[in-house]
Design a protein that fits this description.
The structure holds 2 protein chains of 2 kinds.
Chain A: E1 3-5, E2 10-14, E3 19-21, E4 24-26, E5 32-38, E6 44-50, E7 56-58, E8 64-68, E9 73-78, E10 87-95, E11 101-104, E12 108-113
Parallel strand pairs in A: 2-12
Antiparallel strand pairs in A: 1-4, 3-9, 5-6, 5-10, 7-8, 8-9, 10-11, 10-12
Chain B: E1 4-7, E2 10-13, E3 19-25, E4 31-37, E5 43-51, E6 54-57, E7 64-66, E8 76-78, E9 87-94, E10 102-103, E11 107-111
Parallel strand pairs in B: 2-11
Antiparallel strand pairs in B: 1-3, 3-8, 4-5, 4-9, 5-6, 7-8, 9-10, 9-11
The chains are: A mainly beta, B mainly beta.
Chain lengths: 114, 112
């Protein structure tokens, strides 16, 4: 069965430190891949997406993600975290052989300390 | 500004009552979606619509109903048959199915 796994439920990082959020998927074909961010009580905002081509993708707010086919991963990174990056982050895949249905991971809560 | 609006932001319902959540978009998107979000879980698909006058059940459609009479609007009704309706509901749209989904701000429904 297709699945999206975000292994870290909760991450605490110091302001200015680097951040990496992990995402692994289980899917026969190469899906379309997305990262979204959600502030408390708000909707989801798209950070970046991968459809094809260069496997290192740049997004908004200084985020980037790297698609690694051999590891079925799409990890999100930021070199220097700001306090405003505290939020919940969701990885999602669009199942390209199933009408493009989105499957979301359970999310990673990021806390930023001074 | 183009975007997706959801109303109301907060909604309270008594057990046994139906309630309708509004979702409107002015992005000229063909596809629209409803998701349910519970604490500690990802988003689960309730219903989706590829085009006007057509919609399909998602993974957790029981106790919910939708309509798509206009391209811009995709209201969700939470019926009394939904056993545990308290949740955060998110509406999304995309140019077409499989493309990037853009989300509204959400409606938090609480059953009293």
């Amino acid at each position: 069965a297709q699945s999206v796994t975000q292994p870290d439920i909760h991450i605490t990082v110091s302001e200015g430190a680097s951040l990496e959020l992990r995402c692994n998927y289980s899917y026969g074909a190469t899906p379309y891949l997305f990262w979204y961010v959600q502030s408390p009580g708000q909707g989801l905002q798209l950070l970046l997406k991968y459809f094809s081509g260069d496997t290192l993708v740049q997004g908004i707010k200084g985020f980037e993600a790297e698609f690694k086919r051999s590891q079925s991963s799409f990890n999100l990174r930021k070199p220097s975290v700001h306090w405003s990056d505290a939020a919940e982050y969701f990885c999602a895949v669009a199942l390209t052989d199933s009408w493009g249905k989105f499957q979301f991971g359970a999310g990673t809560q990021v806390v930023v300390t001074p | 500004d183009g975007g997706i609006t959801q109303s109301p932001k907060y909604l309270f319902r008594k057990e046994g009552q139906n309630v309708t959540l509004s979702c409107e978009q002015n992005l000229n998107h063909d596809a629209m979606y409803w998701y349910r979000q519970d604490p500690g879980q990802g988003l689960r698909l309730i219903y989706y619509s590829q085009i006007v006058n057509d919609f399909q059940k998602g993974d957790i459609a029981e106790g919910y109903s939708v309509s798509r009479e206009k391209k811009e609007s995709f209201p969700l009704t939470v019926t009394s048959a939904q056993k545990n309706p308290t949740a955060f509901y998110l509406c999304a749209s995309s140019i077409e199915q499989g493309d990037t989904q853009y989300f509204g701000p959400g409606t938090r429904l609480t059953v009293l």
